[in-house]
Amino acid sequence: MPGASLSRWTLTYFACALVCLLVAESLMVMGFGYPGAAIDAPETLILVHLVAIGWLSLLMCGALFQFVPVLVARPLLGEALPPVALAAILLGLLALLAGFAGLSDLIAVPPEMLPLGGLLLVAGFGAVMLSLGRTLWAARPLALPARFVVVGLAALLGTVLLGETFALVLSGRLGGDMALSLLLNGVPLHALLGLGGWMTFTAMGVSYRLLAMFMLAPETERYSTRLVLAAGTLALVLVAAATPFAMSAGAGLAGLLLAAAATGLLAMGVYASDVVALYRQRKRRNIELNAVAAIGAFAALLASAMLLVALLATGQLQTRIGALTYVFAFGWLGGLGLAKLYKIIAFLTWLECFAPVLGKRQTPRVQDLVDEPRAAPWFGAYYAAVGFATLCLLVDLPTAFRLFVGMQLFATLAIARHFYRSRELLNVPPELRRGFARPHPFLPPARKVP
Known about the structure:
This protein is mainly alpha-helical. It is built from 15 helices and no strands.
């Protein structure tokens, strides 16, 4: 497979991301943040950024460092940048969360902690964009999946710049009517560029290649895929174009966001048809658990789209935005992330342990590193918990919501245990793993594995 060398820091990114997910779920079980607090309360902002930056963004960065070289069939450029980026992002996230905690008087920190955290995040994600951007630039002309990543990285740039602007306003370092108006009206733009552009659009592009690769489906460049790229890009351009209207509280803001929603829904609808085609055209009849579990994520994406339309039609979007965000973040993005991690961790472990001696001695298959019958029920439990938790948010049952988040937390821990078992080679028959050293669960190998 072209570009299938081991990214040394990818598993470290994954481990940090999983820790952030587990911490966020634990806080929600304890009643921290929404729905026990207002949707814009500092406690809720702590949860939102712990999930968006700590879980989803670190997960995406780690995956891109591994799979962008696969998408473009070239080695990653700037290999010294991933650990620098990870350190800056983690420090920036901690500073940002401390700043939000200071706003709610949970701890005593100066207000400058918010822009400091934002500045560190700009530096960290800037290093990510520099490494990936150089790799993509050197590989022109790009295939369609890689073009999705380019648009996603552009959305990431807009997201972090808006976030730093908000941090400066909240800390009192940036004032004026336009800055205040941007803070009051621009949060939806920040969320759409982050969740919709950086995370979703990038995940869509990478999933085209991963689904085809893992299910042995045709990797043809369809007209429909070009339509998804064009419509999704247009939606994000409309969101970015709404920034001046948010700064001036102009009347065009709502219209641009409505147009972006319509265009984005079109992109998601065509993307869904492409995904169905990939599943139908696969050559591997018995698909692996990662592809089966991903169906739950695609179902959550469809449910998110249907819920968005329903809330817009009934005028309840503002009051039920928490439920929509929950099913989108944990069902679609989080579910797809956990499903693909199940395969990716086993794949990277196989590359590190067994690829160097392939053909020289008997080695296990990648599938020998996992135990699908025991892992499958936990993915079902995870999606069921997310669905019921979303329903509880829609009908205002906060206690029941915490109960189902507890179920979600338990399922996440069980899935993480299967990741650990794959990494430790505990599912591999003893005769096949004899003579191989177990890799560290999350630290990089001493040398790059070809």
